[in-house]
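Chain A, query sequence.
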Amino acid sequence: MAHSRRWVMLGIGTAAQTAGTLYLYGLPFLLPALRRATGLPLWELGLLVACPSLGMVLALIGWGVVADRRGERLVIGLGLTGGAAFLAATAHAAGPALFVLLTLAGAAGSAVYAASGRVVTGWFAPGERGLAMGIRQTSQPLGVAVASAVLPVLADSGGPRLALLVAAAVAALTGIVAALLLVDAPRPTTGRTTAAPPTTADPATTGPATATASPTAARLATGSPGTGGTRARSPYRSPTLWRVHGASALLVVAQFVVGAYALDYLVTERGWPARTAGPLIAGAQLVAAAARVLAGRWSDRSAQRLRPLRVIAAGTAAALGALAVAEALHAPPAAPLLLVALVATVSWHGVAYAAVADVAPASWAGRATSTQTVVQNVAATATPPLFGLAVAGLGFGPGFAVAALFPLAAVAVLHGFTVDAHPATRPLDADAPAGAATADRPPSSGSAGRRPGVRERAGPGPRAWWNGRRPTPPG
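Chain A, predicted structure.
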C-alpha cells in the first residue's frame, strides 16, 4: 500500500508544481500581448516577467523551513491558493502595482517548489530519486508547454487579463485538491547522518583508523527528530552542495535566455505568428519533459550521479553555440536549433535535485531543495532583463553566443567530484544511537574517510577528470 501511495503522492506534488509553473514561468509567453497593452520597452518587460522569480528568491527558504516542520500538504495548499489570489489581483492592476503583485504571487507560489521536493525525498529511497525527481521536474516543461500553447491564445482573445485570470483559477483549484488529498511524507524516527568534511588523508598511508570518521563524530552528525536526538549537522559546512547549486545557477542562465525569449524571437525576428510559434514551443517542452525523466533514470543507473549532468551541460553549450552561429548567418536552421536548445537547457533539473537529495540529511531536505531553487532563481531573475539589454544592443546572435559560455562554466564547477547514485549503508557504530545509520561507503582505498556518496578531486588524466575517480594503484 505504501509502495503505491508514494507514486500517488508524487503525482499530486507534480501536478501542484505544474499549476504553479503555469504562471511562475509562463509569463514570457505574454510578452507580445504585454508589449501591445503596456507599451513598455523590452528590458522593462523582461524585468516584469522576472518578478515571480524574485518573489521565489525572497520566500523559498522560509517555505522550506515550514515544510520541514509542518509538512507538505499545508505548505502547498497555502502557497498555491495565496499565489492565485495575488495573480488575480495582478489581472486588474497597472503601473508599479503589476511588479509588486507579480513578486508577491511568485513568493506565495514558490511554496510548491519547497514542498514537492520534500515529497520526493520523504517517499523515495536514494536509488529511485533520480527517476522520481525527473518525474517531479517534468512539471516545469509541462507547465511551460501549457502556457506556451494556451496563454498566447487567451491573450489574443481577451488580452493579458484573461490569461492571468485563467492561470490564477488553475492554481487555486490545484492548491485546494492538494490540500485535501496530499499525505505528508513519513518523517524518520532518526535523522540520516550528514557527511563529515572530506579528509585529504590518503588511506594507503594513514590507515583506516585515520581515514574513517570516529563513532563520536558519527553520533554528533546524527539527527533524531522527534526523539530528542542531536540535530543533523548542516550539509553546508562542506562545499559539495554549494558546487551543485552553483553549477545549477549557471545552467539556469542558459535556460532562461532561451525560454524567456523563444516566443518573442520567433515572432519578432522570424516573423512567425504567435498562434503557430506557441504550439511549436509547447511540443518542444513536452519533449523536454520526457528528457528530464530519462536523464533522471540515467543518473539512477549511473554509478556517478553528476556525470549525466556534465554531459547535458556540454551538450547545452554546443546547442547554444550552433544557434548563435545560425542566427548570425540568418540561416534557416536557426528555428529548429532554438527548439533543440529549448530541450537541452531544461533537461538537467531532475539530476541536480537528486544529487542535492542524496547529499542532504532528511531533516534538511526542505531547506536544501529550497536553497537549490533559490540559487537558480537568483540567476533566473537577473537573466531576462540583462539579456533584453544585450539583445537591444547586440542582437540575438551574440546574445546566444554569450549564453553558451555559462553551461561550459558549469562543467568546470563540477570538475573533479561526483555524487554516488547508490550510496551504500555502513554497519552502525557501536555507540551510535539506536536506529542511526550512515550513508557512507564501506572503507576502501577509494572511499574511506570521504563524504558519503561524494568522491573529491581526482588525479590527472582525461578519464579521471571526467569520472571523478581516484585511480586504483596497481597491485
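The radius of gyration is 23 Å. The longest strand covers residues 418-419.
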